[in-house]
Design goal:
Structural class: alpha/beta
Largest sheet: 7 strands, mixed
Bound molecules: zinc ion
CATH topology of the largest domain: Collagenase (Catalytic Domain)
Order of helices and strands: HEHEHEEHEEHEHHEEEEEEE
Radius of gyration: 23 Å
Shape: globular
CATH architecture of the largest domain: 3-Layer(aba) Sandwich
Number of helices: 7
Low-confidence stretches: 1-30, 340-348
CATH class of the largest domain: Alpha Beta
Distance between the termini: 39 Å
Helix content: 10-25%
């Protein structure tokens, strides 16, 4: 067991090992989707309802969410096996956008009277946590790691291998769990509110995001689950990530509530007693005797019959995005790249390192021999050109320069470091 996690910190090792032991004693679950909620559900709903009214009245602005996809593979070449190709990952993001935008001419379009365009889009992150350009894809070889049982806390485990700041990125992991098709598709972390007095978010802070079983990720001709092969698992899990419940119930997140529960707190999704398997219009019936909304992304029907988020669901997701911790901050994340359009993001020269990034109150610039010669001038300015910090000094060998950023909050700075020997630019986020 210990060898599986030999690369992790000692504390993580103890924590994970104990989880493995406890998970091993539990029966295998046949849930296809799990959602972890970290606080009292009734209070969360009351908090949400109070804000939904405001959100529903607002003009819908287009929200963008930066996504990082961590591909946990087993040593295959890129595009082979479950080391998904960039094309498959990009196709998955395209599906997500078609579904959330109810885009005409795609499987995500519908003419349902309660269906809507969420005005939420997803982009692969353009800036990585160090401020450098990225394609939003991280590949990690986990060959030496045993495939976990499916009732294991897969998001927590995945986050040990690769995890970007959840305030700036929607983390999505994909790995093959080597299980029969349809048994387990994905899992998501539910948002938390910032209500005072509620259980804090330690667990989610350390592992917030979405896990998708590799055969259910993206669009492809091979290595894909035959019934869940259109990228809708991520659409469904992203719904949870933004606060949606299954259409059949609320008090348990992967169980069945029956007609007596509070449902999903959305008035325009007919209450159903259970989930749909397959893609049949014959049933189940809604609790009011009418047809069940099997086309809703928050059912468990097959990918091919899904095409619908309702207006109430959309209001709920947008309310979470406007208010919840680790969701609201995604909308202004520098990872979107919008703030630095047209500006060279990084021209790092050898021997210059800027840390930490993001920074609070101060940043450090270390320079080695190659970057240090004569007088050095460091300037931090906004993408619009406003200079906020500057420093000029004689450079000494292997020096580290400290610069205070007190008074600067939630800004992206371009740090320009010039010496007679070198010139470099680094993007820094100040929190
Ligand atoms: Zn679900």
């Amino acid at each position: 067991m210990i060898s599986l996690y030999s690369m992790k910190s000692f504390l993580s090792l103890i924590f994970i090992s104990s989880l493995v032991l406890s998970a091993g004693s539990q029966p295998v679950s046949d849930d296809r989707c799990k959602v972890t909620r970290v606080e009292d559900s009734d209070r969360f709903e009351r908090w949400l309802v109070g804000k939904q009214d405001l959100s529903a009245r607002k003009q819908k602005t287009l929200y963008k969410i930066p996504v990082v996809v961590h591909v946990l593979h087993r040593g295959e070449a890129i595009g082979e096996g479950f080391n998904h190709s960039k094309a498959r990952i990009e196709a998955q993001i395209r599906v997500l956008n078609e579904d959330f935008r109810r885009k005409e001419g795609t499987p995500g379009f519908n003419v349902h009277p309660d269906g809507g365009d969420a005005q939420i889009e997803f982009v692969l992150a353009k800036i990585d946590p160090d401020g450098n350009p990225t394609d939003g894809i991280v590949r990690i070889d986990v060959t030496s790691v045993q495939v976990p049982p499916i009732n294991f806390n897969i998001i927590l485990q995945s986050s040990q291998y690769s995890y970007w700041n959840p305030n700036e990125y929607a983390n999505v992991w994909t790995m093959d769990l080597a299980i029969p098709p349809g048994l387990f598709l994905g899992e998501a972390r539910f948002p938390v509110s910032n209500l005072e007095g509620l259980r804090n978010d330690d667990d989610s802070q350390n592992a917030d995001g979405i896990f998708i079983n590799a055969p259910n990720f993206g669009l492809a001709k091979t290595n894909i689950d035959p019934n869940f092969n259109m990228g809708r698992t991520l659409t469904h899990e992203m719904g949870h990530f933004l606060g949606l419940l299954h259409i059949w119930g609320a008090t348990t997140f992967d169980g069945v509530d029956g007609c007596s529960s509070n449902g999903d707190y959305c008035n325009d999704t007919p209450m159903v007693s259970t989930y749909t398997s397959g893609c049949t219009s014959a049933g189940p019936l809604a609790c009011n005797g009418g047809p069940a909304m099997i086309g809703n992304y928050m059912d468990w029907s097959n990918d091919i019959c899904m095409s619908l988020f309702t207006n109430d669901q959309i209001t709920r997701m947008r309310t979470v995005l406007e208010n919840s911790v680790r969701r609201k901050s995604l909308l202004t994340s520098p990872a979107l790249g919008d703030l630095v359009t047209g500006i060279p993001v990084s021209e790092i020269s050898e021997g210059v390192k800027v840390f930490p990034n993001p920074a609070v109150d101060r940043i450090y610039i270390s320079l080695n021999d190659k970057a240090c010669e004569g007088e050095i001038v460091i300037t931090g300015y906004t993408p619009s050109g406003e200079i906020l910090i500057t420093k000029r000094m004689k450079c000494a060998s292997d020096m580290t320069v400290e610069m205070e950023t007190t008074g600067i909050r939630d800004r992206v700075l371009i740090l320009d470091i010039k010496s007679p020997a070198s010139s470099s630019k680094q993007l820094v986020v100040i929190r």
